[in-house]
Specification:
alpha/beta; 7-stranded mixed sheet; 4-stranded antiparallel sheet; Aspartate Aminotransferase, domain 2; 13 helices; binds pyridoxal-5'-phosphate; single chain
């Protein structure tokens, strides 16, 4: 990646941002797209016949098409949400559950792909939790054993937001088809994968994909739910903009994404997300993945070479992305994050990363420090980060 890309992210002149797994920085073209909605064609979507309304409706629809194309989906299957959490909850609330249904999930999951299923226990739904090895790598036979005719849903993250490891989604999809019940469905949490890895939903073999626009250069308040068959899912919100027709006694839902987007949506955000997808396409997802692999390798090897530093997760660059968790013996993760900020203007995340069950499993009471890279980071920034960690570790 190059200086031209960095020029689109003015914040990088002042700090070293290594927290893109939480939310990414936003490039100028996306900021401009959001502003131009408010400045040039500010109107509601799908409602009016006047010119401005037509323009904005078309741009909002185009944004859906761009996102659909980005993940190899068809038009009408991509629903805009406010984040991954909302997208996953739409599945938990929108599917019909019966007593005895089973959900297969894993111990790697972010709370957003865990709590919605835990809550369903009240309805007699059983949860089966597959454990990865301590480095975050799964044994596929554990999925085979966990699935049965009673499996209604399999819900797995494609990339761990703590360990950065990539899960074998295609293989899990095949097991789900073979071993799961006739109407079993497969949800992939793509919050950490969609921003970094080229994705084709058909190739993945899943039924739902949830991800966050704000983690892939889009505005905050944007996310996506891809639904293979919109008829599988009941909308969770009812109101304006989501119907074909309404009578005194009945209603017919709209056929496309509109049926899941009741009420006025985050119009500027959606259009901004479309622009973010344009930006990622222009950079090239394959090129970005190789660049990030290089940064991740440097980060991992560097951290492993520092005394008193523990690194978590697989160290094989092929089975992970540039999300790296570590600790320094004798220091609390929050203290390390504060020192990195104070001494070197480096922003990293610390704590349990909304993955408490995984932290218990790994025996990490206070969690970890997590550094995560994106296309705007440089090898020089990684060097500065490693030097700063070394200084902090030496001071313990
Ligand atoms: C793997 C994973 N799933 C879900 C989420 C939730 O995303 P959001 O906060 O955008 O809803 C995150 C956020 O960090 C995540 O990393």
């Amino acid at each position: 990646m190059n200086e031209r890309i960095r020029a689109d992210f003015p914040i990088v002149n002042d700090i070293i941002y290594l927290d893109s797994a939480a939310t990414s920085l936003t490039p100028e073209p996306v900021v401009e797209a959001v502003l131009s909605y408010y400045r040039e064609y500010n109107a509601n979507v799908g409602r009016g016949v006047y010119r401005l309304s037509q323009v904005v409706s078309q741009k909002y629809k185009d944004a859906h098409s761009k996102v659909a194309e980005f993940i190899g989906a068809n038009e009408g299957e991509v629903v805009f949400t406010k984040n991954t959490t909302e997208a996953i909850n739409m599945i938990a609330y929108g599917l019909k559950w019966s007593k005895g249904d089973e959900i297969v999930t894993t111990l790697l999951e972010h709370h957003s792909n865990f709590l919605p299923w835990l809550r369903l226990k009240e309805q007699g739904v059983h949860l089966k939790i597959v454990e990865p090895g301590k480095t975050g790598i799964f044994d596929l036979s554990d999925f085979e054993h966990a699935m049965s005719d009673s499996t209604r849903l399999v819900a797995v993250t494609q990339v761990s937001n703590v360990l950065g490891t990539i899960s074998p989604i295609k293989e899990i999809a095949a097991i789900c088809k073979e071993k799961g019940g006739a109407n079993s469905l497969f949800l992939v949490d793509g919050a950490q994968s969609a921003p970094h890895i080229p994705i084709d939903v058909e190739e993945l073999g899943c039924d739902f994909l949830a991800f966050s626009g704000h983690k892939m250069l889009g505005p905050t308040g944007t996310g996506v739910l891809w639904v293979k068959d919109p008829n599988e899912l009941e909308p969770t919100l009812f109101g304006g903009g989501m119907i074909e027709s309404v009578s005194k006694d009945d209603y017919t839902l709209a056929s496309g994404y509109e049926r899941f987007e009741a009420g006025t949506p985050h119009i500027a955000g959606g259009i901004g997300l479309g622009k973010a997808v344009d930006y990622l396409n222009a950079v090239g997802m394959e090129a970005m993945r190789s660049y990030e692999e290089r940064l991740a390798k440097k980060l991992l090897e560097g951290l492993q070479g520092i005394e008193k530093v523990q690194v978590y997760g697989s160290t094989n660059p092929n089975e992970r992305i540039g999300v790296v968790s570590f600790n320094i013996n004798g220091l609390h993760p929050h203290d390390i994050a504060l020192k990195l900020d104070e001494t070197s203007d480096i922003m990293v995340r610390s704590g349990h990363h909304c993955c408490m069950p995984l932290m218990h499993y790994l025996g990490l009471k206070d969690g970890t420090v997590r550094a995560s890279v994106y296309l705007y980071n440089t090898e020089g920034e990684v060097d500065t980060f490693l030097e700063s960690v070394e200084v902090i570790a030496k001071g313990v």
